[in-house]
Amino acid sequence: MAGGQSVSDELIQKTYDELGYDPVTNTFTRPTRSGSSPISSYPSPNSSYHRIQPKAPFRIRGLEKTAYQSATGTTYRYSAIYRNAIIFQFLIEKWLAGLDARTHHRLITQDTDACRSMVANIGEGYARPTTVEYIQFLGYSLASLEEVATDVDHARDTALLPSRPGSGLAGIGIILKPTMPPTLSYSSPKTTHDPLGDIKRQLGEIRREDLTYEIFVELINKTRYLYKRTVEGLWGKLSRDEQDKLNAELRNIRSQR
Asked: What pTM was computed for the model?
Protein backbone atom coordinates (compact mmCIF):
# COMPACT_ATOMS: atom_id res chain seq x y z
CA MET A 1 0.00 0.00 0.00
CA ALA A 2 1.30 3.40 -0.92
CA GLY A 3 2.65 5.40 1.98
CA GLY A 4 1.78 2.60 4.41
CA GLN A 5 -1.95 3.46 4.26
CA SER A 6 -4.49 0.79 5.08
CA VAL A 7 -7.30 -0.10 2.68
CA SER A 8 -9.73 1.76 4.95
CA ASP A 9 -7.60 4.91 4.85
CA GLU A 10 -7.35 4.77 1.06
CA LEU A 11 -11.11 4.36 0.66
CA ILE A 12 -11.84 7.28 2.95
CA GLN A 13 -9.29 9.51 1.23
CA LYS A 14 -10.69 8.62 -2.20
CA THR A 15 -14.17 9.60 -1.03
CA TYR A 16 -12.82 12.84 0.42
CA ASP A 17 -11.13 13.68 -2.90
CA GLU A 18 -14.32 13.04 -4.85
CA LEU A 19 -16.32 15.30 -2.53
CA GLY A 20 -13.62 17.92 -2.17
CA TYR A 21 -13.70 17.47 1.61
CA ASP A 22 -10.77 18.46 3.85
CA PRO A 23 -10.85 16.31 7.08
CA VAL A 24 -8.34 18.60 8.79
CA THR A 25 -10.43 21.78 8.54
CA ASN A 26 -13.78 19.95 8.26
CA THR A 27 -14.65 22.03 5.18
CA PHE A 28 -15.42 21.42 1.52
CA THR A 29 -13.24 22.93 -1.21
CA ARG A 30 -16.17 22.97 -3.61
CA PRO A 31 -19.91 23.45 -2.95
CA THR A 32 -22.32 20.55 -2.61
CA ARG A 33 -25.46 20.21 -4.74
CA SER A 34 -27.44 22.18 -2.20
CA GLY A 35 -24.84 24.95 -2.25
CA SER A 36 -23.82 24.42 1.38
CA SER A 37 -21.49 22.09 3.21
CA PRO A 38 -22.87 19.46 5.58
CA ILE A 39 -21.94 20.38 9.14
CA SER A 40 -22.61 17.11 10.97
CA SER A 41 -20.36 14.11 11.23
CA TYR A 42 -21.58 10.56 11.71
CA PRO A 43 -20.27 9.03 14.96
CA SER A 44 -19.06 5.44 14.75
CA PRO A 45 -20.24 3.11 17.54
CA ASN A 46 -16.58 2.17 18.02
CA SER A 47 -14.81 4.99 19.88
CA SER A 48 -11.39 3.41 19.25
CA TYR A 49 -12.06 3.57 15.52
CA HIS A 50 -12.09 7.37 15.61
CA ARG A 51 -8.78 7.52 17.42
CA ILE A 52 -7.03 5.88 14.51
CA GLN A 53 -9.17 6.85 11.52
CA PRO A 54 -10.10 10.20 9.95
CA LYS A 55 -13.69 11.19 10.68
CA ALA A 56 -16.07 11.07 7.73
CA PRO A 57 -18.88 13.63 7.36
CA PHE A 58 -21.28 10.79 6.58
CA ARG A 59 -21.79 7.12 7.34
CA ILE A 60 -19.67 4.56 5.46
CA ARG A 61 -21.26 1.24 6.35
CA GLY A 62 -18.51 -0.91 4.82
CA LEU A 63 -15.83 0.72 6.96
CA GLU A 64 -17.81 0.19 10.16
CA LYS A 65 -17.32 -3.54 9.69
CA THR A 66 -13.54 -3.18 9.76
CA ALA A 67 -13.36 -1.53 13.21
CA TYR A 68 -12.86 -3.33 16.53
CA GLN A 69 -15.45 -3.09 19.31
CA SER A 70 -12.71 -2.56 21.89
CA ALA A 71 -9.51 -0.55 21.85
CA THR A 72 -7.63 -3.43 23.51
CA GLY A 73 -9.65 -6.46 22.45
CA THR A 74 -8.98 -8.18 25.79
CA THR A 75 -11.40 -6.65 28.29
CA TYR A 76 -13.70 -9.66 27.87
CA ARG A 77 -11.24 -11.47 30.19
CA TYR A 78 -12.76 -9.51 33.08
CA SER A 79 -16.30 -10.67 32.33
CA ALA A 80 -18.15 -13.15 34.52
CA ILE A 81 -19.12 -15.27 31.54
CA TYR A 82 -15.48 -15.72 30.50
CA ARG A 83 -14.49 -16.53 34.07
CA ASN A 84 -17.15 -19.24 34.29
CA ALA A 85 -16.09 -20.68 30.94
CA ILE A 86 -12.47 -20.96 32.12
CA ILE A 87 -13.54 -22.65 35.37
CA PHE A 88 -15.77 -25.06 33.47
CA GLN A 89 -12.96 -25.94 31.07
CA PHE A 90 -10.50 -26.59 33.93
CA LEU A 91 -12.93 -28.81 35.86
CA ILE A 92 -14.09 -30.81 32.84
CA GLU A 93 -10.51 -31.47 31.73
CA LYS A 94 -9.58 -32.55 35.27
CA TRP A 95 -12.51 -34.98 35.34
CA LEU A 96 -11.74 -36.32 31.84
CA ALA A 97 -8.09 -36.91 32.78
CA GLY A 98 -9.16 -39.73 35.09
CA LEU A 99 -11.10 -41.68 32.46
CA ASP A 100 -9.64 -44.57 30.54
CA ALA A 101 -8.24 -42.96 27.37
CA ARG A 102 -8.89 -46.03 25.21
CA THR A 103 -12.42 -46.79 26.38
CA HIS A 104 -13.61 -43.18 26.47
CA HIS A 105 -11.47 -41.69 23.71
CA ARG A 106 -14.39 -40.15 21.85
CA LEU A 107 -15.91 -38.58 24.98
CA ILE A 108 -12.56 -37.14 26.07
CA THR A 109 -11.77 -35.70 22.65
CA GLN A 110 -15.24 -34.30 22.05
CA ASP A 111 -15.64 -32.61 25.44
CA THR A 112 -12.09 -31.23 25.44
CA ASP A 113 -12.69 -29.63 22.05
CA ALA A 114 -16.12 -28.34 23.09
CA CYS A 115 -14.72 -26.63 26.20
CA ARG A 116 -11.96 -24.99 24.21
CA SER A 117 -14.54 -23.82 21.67
CA MET A 118 -16.69 -22.44 24.48
CA VAL A 119 -13.84 -20.26 25.75
CA ALA A 120 -12.40 -19.31 22.34
CA ASN A 121 -15.73 -18.14 20.89
CA ILE A 122 -16.16 -15.60 23.69
CA GLY A 123 -12.82 -14.01 22.83
CA GLU A 124 -13.30 -14.22 19.07
CA GLY A 125 -16.80 -12.77 19.26
CA TYR A 126 -15.60 -9.85 21.37
CA ALA A 127 -12.93 -9.03 18.78
CA ARG A 128 -15.48 -8.95 15.95
CA PRO A 129 -16.42 -5.49 14.59
CA THR A 130 -20.15 -5.60 15.33
CA THR A 131 -22.37 -6.34 18.29
CA VAL A 132 -24.47 -8.67 16.13
CA GLU A 133 -21.41 -10.84 15.47
CA TYR A 134 -20.54 -10.86 19.17
CA ILE A 135 -24.03 -12.16 19.96
CA GLN A 136 -23.66 -14.85 17.29
CA PHE A 137 -20.36 -16.07 18.73
CA LEU A 138 -21.83 -16.14 22.22
CA GLY A 139 -24.45 -18.45 20.71
CA TYR A 140 -21.70 -20.75 19.45
CA SER A 141 -20.11 -20.68 22.89
CA LEU A 142 -23.40 -21.53 24.61
CA ALA A 143 -23.95 -24.41 22.17
CA SER A 144 -20.59 -25.87 23.22
CA LEU A 145 -21.61 -25.60 26.87
CA GLU A 146 -24.85 -27.45 26.15
CA GLU A 147 -22.94 -30.16 24.30
CA VAL A 148 -20.82 -30.90 27.36
CA ALA A 149 -23.81 -30.52 29.72
CA THR A 150 -25.49 -33.40 27.89
CA ASP A 151 -22.40 -35.56 28.44
CA VAL A 152 -22.33 -34.59 32.13
CA ASP A 153 -25.91 -35.87 32.54
CA HIS A 154 -25.01 -39.09 30.74
CA ALA A 155 -21.86 -39.51 32.87
CA ARG A 156 -23.99 -39.36 36.02
CA ASP A 157 -26.37 -41.96 34.62
CA THR A 158 -23.51 -44.31 33.70
CA ALA A 159 -21.61 -43.81 36.99
CA LEU A 160 -18.67 -42.08 35.30
CA LEU A 161 -19.36 -39.04 37.49
CA PRO A 162 -20.37 -39.44 41.15
CA SER A 163 -23.48 -37.75 42.54
CA ARG A 164 -23.33 -36.35 46.08
CA PRO A 165 -26.39 -34.24 46.94
CA GLY A 166 -25.41 -31.12 48.87
CA SER A 167 -22.02 -30.73 47.20
CA GLY A 168 -21.30 -27.52 45.32
CA LEU A 169 -18.70 -25.04 44.10
CA ALA A 170 -18.22 -23.51 47.54
CA GLY A 171 -17.24 -26.92 48.85
CA ILE A 172 -14.18 -26.98 46.58
CA GLY A 173 -13.27 -23.37 47.28
CA ILE A 174 -14.72 -21.76 44.15
CA ILE A 175 -16.55 -18.50 44.90
CA LEU A 176 -17.98 -16.80 41.81
CA LYS A 177 -17.36 -13.17 42.70
CA PRO A 178 -16.84 -10.25 40.27
CA THR A 179 -13.38 -9.87 38.71
CA MET A 180 -12.13 -6.31 39.15
CA PRO A 181 -9.83 -4.68 36.56
CA PRO A 182 -6.34 -3.77 37.83
CA THR A 183 -5.48 -0.20 38.82
CA LEU A 184 -2.87 0.00 36.07
CA SER A 185 -3.82 0.28 32.42
CA TYR A 186 -4.34 -3.25 31.16
CA SER A 187 -4.47 -1.92 27.59
CA SER A 188 -0.68 -1.62 27.63
CA PRO A 189 1.11 -4.40 25.72
CA LYS A 190 3.55 -4.64 28.64
CA THR A 191 0.81 -5.53 31.11
CA THR A 192 1.00 -9.15 32.35
CA HIS A 193 -1.91 -9.00 34.80
CA ASP A 194 -4.08 -12.12 34.65
CA PRO A 195 -7.54 -11.36 36.09
CA LEU A 196 -8.12 -15.09 36.65
CA GLY A 197 -4.71 -15.85 38.15
CA ASP A 198 -6.03 -16.54 41.67
CA ILE A 199 -8.88 -18.72 40.40
CA LYS A 200 -6.52 -20.75 38.22
CA ARG A 201 -4.27 -21.42 41.21
CA GLN A 202 -7.30 -22.62 43.19
CA LEU A 203 -8.37 -24.85 40.31
CA GLY A 204 -4.94 -26.45 40.24
CA GLU A 205 -5.35 -27.51 43.85
CA ILE A 206 -8.73 -29.23 43.37
CA ARG A 207 -8.66 -33.02 43.49
CA ARG A 208 -10.46 -34.98 40.81
CA GLU A 209 -12.22 -37.16 43.40
CA ASP A 210 -13.89 -34.05 44.83
CA LEU A 211 -15.74 -33.35 41.57
CA THR A 212 -19.42 -34.29 41.51
CA TYR A 213 -22.41 -34.09 39.25
CA GLU A 214 -23.93 -31.41 41.49
CA ILE A 215 -20.86 -29.18 41.16
CA PHE A 216 -21.05 -29.27 37.37
CA VAL A 217 -24.81 -28.68 37.34
CA GLU A 218 -24.42 -25.61 39.58
CA LEU A 219 -21.72 -24.17 37.32
CA ILE A 220 -23.68 -24.98 34.15
CA ASN A 221 -26.88 -23.34 35.41
CA LYS A 222 -25.09 -20.20 36.60
CA THR A 223 -23.25 -19.92 33.29
CA ARG A 224 -26.44 -20.34 31.28
CA TYR A 225 -27.91 -17.44 33.25
CA LEU A 226 -24.87 -15.27 32.45
CA TYR A 227 -25.21 -16.00 28.72
CA LYS A 228 -28.87 -14.93 28.89
CA ARG A 229 -28.12 -11.69 30.74
CA THR A 230 -25.13 -10.86 28.53
CA VAL A 231 -27.13 -11.27 25.33
CA GLU A 232 -30.00 -9.22 26.75
CA GLY A 233 -27.55 -6.44 27.56
CA LEU A 234 -26.09 -6.58 24.05
CA TRP A 235 -29.58 -6.40 22.56
CA GLY A 236 -30.07 -3.16 24.47
CA LYS A 237 -26.72 -1.82 23.26
CA LEU A 238 -27.57 -2.77 19.68
CA SER A 239 -30.91 -0.96 19.91
CA ARG A 240 -29.29 2.20 21.32
CA ASP A 241 -26.53 2.14 18.69
CA GLU A 242 -29.02 1.83 15.84
CA GLN A 243 -31.12 4.67 17.27
CA ASP A 244 -28.03 6.87 17.50
CA LYS A 245 -27.14 6.07 13.89
CA LEU A 246 -30.63 6.93 12.71
CA ASN A 247 -30.65 10.21 14.62
CA ALA A 248 -27.24 11.15 13.19
CA GLU A 249 -28.38 10.43 9.64
CA LEU A 250 -31.53 12.50 10.15
CA ARG A 251 -29.48 15.42 11.48
CA ASN A 252 -27.19 15.14 8.49
CA ILE A 253 -30.13 15.19 6.08
CA ARG A 254 -31.73 18.21 7.79
CA SER A 255 -28.43 20.14 7.76
CA GLN A 256 -28.30 19.93 3.94
CA ARG A 257 -31.80 21.34 3.32
From this structure: 0.67
